[in-house]
Specification:
heterodimer; A: 112 residues; Arc Repressor Mutant, subunit A; 4 helices; 52% helix; B: 895 residues; alpha+beta; 5 domains; 10-stranded mixed beta sheet; 29 helices
């Protein structure tokens, strides 16, 4: 009895999370900040949707987590990519580029 | 692989859920705080900053829940929930639970018990290494009146040993008795006489010491003996220094060379000592088929191959050895080897009977499941409001189905556990009765394979009776149920169809079993009705007494001692007749065979082998066999070595057509013996069991001259038959013992039994099958009757309102009763018709168990069909009567 996850952006969100973690390990809030910054505040995710995605990715062993102390000496859970996660990110990026190029081409067709 | 890891992770997280949960809380709190900080820095007032942070995050609880979904082991936790739910709801309905579990326990217990026997006897390999390669070696020939296969002679064994290419090991064995003569009291012990190859074929090493080798078989070798574990413990207290010591067996010292382990079982024998077979080739002839053959097949050889291979060795054997005195050499060419798997030989004809029983009990289990399914359906019907509400509140169809199944599984396992207890109690009782001609009884145990079977059976039954209500109430048209409300809508045929089908199935199966046990009863009665050839066997005491050559040397003195014993036995109060015989009628394995020549028809070519038996005067009067013509032996016949004989009526009719015509004819057992005159013809005795034709038998006096190559032939081991109303009682046996030891002290009584025991044993397989089938049929009948009763009673309960209205409108009591009885009868008759068809098809499988009836015995079918229908009518009449008594005023007011 798995619940239906109607989130259309799900696949995309997973890819964005992986991308955000490409450079360094980050905690949840950091990831939302990073995505917002990079998208120049276009992509405003409901911040809560991040957490199911993080647990899902961890279960799929694409990311791993550990508790660390932040610069303000608070305990926070930091996520980082696994090797499998990096590979997944590459394939997803390639896929995405193919798809978006194709979509762009379709949209670029001028209709007389 | 992936799903295994996934399953494991989920399983593990079941225990770690709380840790993860706390982590998630902390993480979300941290997130909100950071967002609040950010909002503060953007210039919002503290309260607003926090509020905005929550808004930006979204519904905290909602996201927590969907995050939980990512790590929660949904299936397992739900299953545990289902299980807990099931337990709770079963506990709330103790009567239902008890009835259902007990019904199942009966079905599963009975099936498990019978399976244990089937497994122990038929399926489990014999307890020897690579036991499939073990074979028994027997022989048939065309003319032993179609008698059972027989063993082999030592000369044949030696020829086979030289000629065969099929066996890795080949040995012979025989049963025997000896007297152990050292110690305080001499005792008679059972011995197993084996050649070295027998032990090597079985490949069970001794616990101590060594096996026999070919050297121990030589006629001039030092005499040796091996002890069985039980005897070693009983006689020597497990003294380990026994190896190398001597013990006196039949007054001759034998060197103890080995002890067999406690786990060693030699087929169904229970010997005390193992002795080597002595083989002196110089004295051997072709004859003397007194040994059983046992061999281990060489790799890749089948039993058929081996039979054919040995067949080629038979002519070589016939040419190589001298014939038995009086038997023409040509006779031996018809000896045909028969190699069969040892297990098949051991199990024999019991196999069919056990499989029929297994099928029978399986049917009882199905009926029990149908009953429980009925109960479960009833319960589901009572609860369909609840089910509908739960469906309306969002429980998926699968979830509801799983919950119902969980209940069934719990019931099934409960029933299974009780059933195993029942089975083990039943087996305990059975092994105490220790009966019934069932081989390998000592090997039967409730082992892991049987337990696995019981668990599988419980689960399968649970699925069987659990899936029916699921199919009926699996969330279909539940809205209708809610609309219909709690009001008992008069009667919807559709709603009852499942229960009706179940009842019909029950009645049909019960009918099959009743027909089966009816046929067995008929068989049993037919067998009992066959005159066995003796009368009132329970009052004939049998004891075997052996006078060894060391005790009395002279043959005439042996007879005199036996006569003295007869006189003393006859003097015991209450003894009406007493005599003795060389071996007992109907006791398997206790008789001999030889050719018989007739004086009136000169022999040419081969003569058929005939059964013969030695008797003393008065034996037939003692056991109640009638004298058809002529006279019995007299003591004078024996004292004067008169050449006389008696024959059975069947032999007289076969050879001379008329018993009287046989009188005065002369026969002999072979060349060189005097012709012996037939002085009397006695009634037939069913030696092979009453279900077989009475074989033709020749009776010789127990003391004769020039018989089978012996100058004086006397029976040293004889069985006394003593007719007395006190036969079998301890006091009587004590008197018998005194009488015997008054003549010859230190002679033990062996094989103490009554002729009735021997007779009962010959019926054992049939009576066992009868008891089991009748028990099964009785269970089936009870369950079927409960089924019909239940359906009608429920129909009455649900239609109270309608009945009230009908009564108010003037329906008579009788009409109302008839209405319900008719309904029960319709169900029962449908079941009876289906059952008759099934019985016709199924009873054919038990044809080989039947005697004096056929699988299609019309009387049984009619009787069972009528009986079952009237019982069904009665079962529906009881609730119907209650319906007719319903007070319309009360019922209608209650609405």
């Amino acid at each position: 009895m798995t619940k239906e996850r109607g989130d259309l952006l799900q696949g995309t969100l997973d890819m964005l999370v992986l991308k955000a973690l490409q450079l360094e390990a980050m905690h949840g809030w950091g990831i939302t900040e990073r995505i917002e910054q990079w998208s120049e505040h276009v992509l405003q995710l409901g911040q809560g949707t991040l957490y199911p995605a993080l647990y899902r990715l961890e279960r799929q062993e694409l990311i791993r987590s550990e508790w660390r102390i932040t610069e303000n000496s608070r305990r926070a859970r930091y996520y980082s990519l696994t090797r499998q996660g990096r590979r997944q990110l590459e394939t997803e990026l390639a896929q995405w580029q193919r798809t978006s190029r194709a979509v762009n081409q379709v949209l670029a067709v001028t209709v007389p | 692989m992936r799903w295994i890891r996934e399953g494991w992770r989920r399983l593990r997280s079941l225990t770690r859920t709380e840790g993860i949960e706390a982590g998630l809380d902390e993480e979300i709190l941290f997130h909100i705080e950071r967002q609040t900080d950010k909002n503060l820095r953007a210039g919002l007032p503290p309260d607003e900053a926090r509020r905005q942070a929550y808004i930006q995050f979204g519904g905290v609880e909602q996201f927590k829940e969907s995050t939980r979904d990512e790590f929660r082991p949904v299936l397992i936790q739900d299953s545990l929930l289902d299980l807990r739910h099931a337990l709770r709801s079963l506990r709330r309905a103790p009567v239902f639970t008890l009835v259902a579990a007990l019904t199942l326990a009966l079905g599963i217990g009975a099936t498990t018990a019978v399976f244990t026997v089937v497994h122990g006897v038929l399926i489990k390999p014999l307890p020897f290494r690579d036991s499939d390669a073990l074979v028994s070696l027997k022989h048939t020939s065309k003319d032993v009146n179609g008698g059972p296969p027989y063993g082999l002679s030592l000369s044949l064994f030696l020829s086979y040993t030289q000629e065969n290419r099929s066996f890795e090991q080949l040995g012979v064995w025989s049963r025997g008795t000896e007297h152990v003569t050292d110690g305080v009291l001499p005792e008679e012990v059972t011995t197993l006489n084996v050649s070295a190859g027998t032990l090597r074929a079985l490949a069970v090493p001794p616990a101590m010491g060594r096996w026999f080798s070919e050297d121990d078989q030589a006629p001039d070798a030092l005499e040796t003996v091996m002890l069985m574990d039980g005897y070693w413990a009983r006689r020597f207290g497990r003294d380990p220094s026994i190896i190398g010591r001597q013990m006196a067996v039949d007054s001759r010292p034998r060197l103890v060379i080995g002890v067999m382990p406690a786990s060693f079982r030699f087929l169904d024998e229970a010997p005390d000592l193992v002795l080597p077979v002595r083989i002196d080739p110089r004295t051997l002839t072709l004859g003397g088929f007194n040994f059983e053959g046992l061999a281990r097949l060489a790799p890749g050889i089948t039993a058929e191959h081996a039979s054919a291979d040995l067949g080629r060795a038979v002519p070589v054997w016939v040419e190589a050895w001298p014939p038995f005195p009086g038997t023409p050499r040509a006779d031996y060419f018809q000896v045909t080897p028969l190699v069969r798997p040892l297990k098949q030989e051991l199990v024999g004809s019991v196999g069919t009977m056990l499989w029929v029983l297994m099928g029978t009990i399986g049917i009882v289990l199905v009926i029990a499941c149908a009953n429980v399914a009925n109960l479960v359906l009833l319960r589901a019907q009572d609860r369909h409001q609840e089910i509908a509400i739960r469906a309306a509140l969002g429980a998926g169809r699968g979830r509801l189905a799983r919950q119902m199944l969980a209940e069934s599984l719990v019931l099934g396992l409960l029933g299974g556990a009780l059933g195993v207890l029942l089975a083990s109690a039943g087996l305990h009782v059975m092994s105490m009765l220790g009966p019934a001609g069932i081989p390998r009884l000592r090997e039967i145990t409730l082992d892991p394979a049987v337990l696995a079977f019981a668990v599988g059976l419980s689960l399968a039954s649970a699925l069987l009776f659990g899936s029916i209500p699921v199919a009926r109430f699996g969330g279909r048209r539940l809205a209708l149920t809610l609309q219909g409300g709690g009001r008992g809508s008069s009667d919807s045929r559709e709603r009852h169809r499942a229960r009706h089908v179940l009842v019909v199935v029950q009645v049909a199966l019960a009918l099959v079993l009743l027909v089966g046990s009816g046929l067995m009863v008929r068989t049993f009665l037919a067998l009992r009705a066959v005159p066995p050839g003796f009368t009132d066997p329970d009052h004939v005491q049998l004891v075997r007494i052996t006078l060894s050559e060391t005790q009395i040397g002279d043959p005439e003195r042996v007879l005199r001692a036996q006569r003295d014993m007869l006189d003393r036995l006859a003097a015991i109060p209450g003894v009406t007749d007493v005599s003795f015989t060389g071996n007992v009628p109907m006791a398997a394995g206790e008789r001999s065979r030889s050719t018989i020549e007739r004086e009136d028809v000169p022999s040419h070519g081969s003569q058929p082998l005939r059964w013969f038996r030695y008797v003393a005067p008065g034996f037939f009067r003692t056991i109640g066999t009638p004298l058809v013509a002529g006279r019995d032996f007299t003591w004078v016949d024996l004292e004067e070595y008169r050449p006389v004989a008696l024959v059975s009526e069947s032999l007289a009719r076969e050879l001379w057509r008329d018993p009287r015509a046989a009188l005065g004819q002369r026969i002999r057992e072979g060349d060189g013996s005097p012709w012996r005159e037939i002085v009397g013809v006695v009634g037939d005795v069913h030696d092979d069991g009453v279900h077989r034709e009475a074989p033709a038998i020749v009776y010789w006096p127990s003391l004769m001259e020039t018989f089978l190559g012996q100058e004086i032939n006397v029976r040293r081991a004889v069985t006394f038959a003593i007719r007395s109303g006190r036969a079998g009682s301890d006091g009587f046996l004590a008197q018998v013992r005194d009488a015997v030891s008054g003549v010859e002290p230190d002679v033990p009584l062996t094989r103490v039994r009554t002729l009735g025991d021997v007779y009962g044993r010959s019926l054992a397989t049939t009576s066992f099958a009868l008891v089991m089938l009748a028990t099964a049929a009785a269970m089936a009948l009870v369950l079927g009757v409960i089924g019909i009763y239940g359906v009608i009673a429920q129909a009455v309960a649900q239609r109270r309102r309608e009945i009230g209205i009908r009564t108010a409108l003037g329906a008579s009591r009788r009409e109302l009763e008839a209405m319900f009885v008719r309904r029960g009868l319709t169900l029962a008759l449908t079941g009876v018709v289906c059952g008759l068809a099934a019985a016709v098809a199924l009873t054919r499988l038990m044809a080989s168990l039947l005697f004096g009836t056929s699988p299609l015995d019309p009387a049984i079918y009619v009787l069972v069909a009528l009986g079952l229908t009237s019982i069904a009518a009665l079962a529906s009449y009881v609730p119907a009567r209650r319906a007719a008594r319903i007070d319309p005023v009360q019922t209608l007011r209650g609405e």
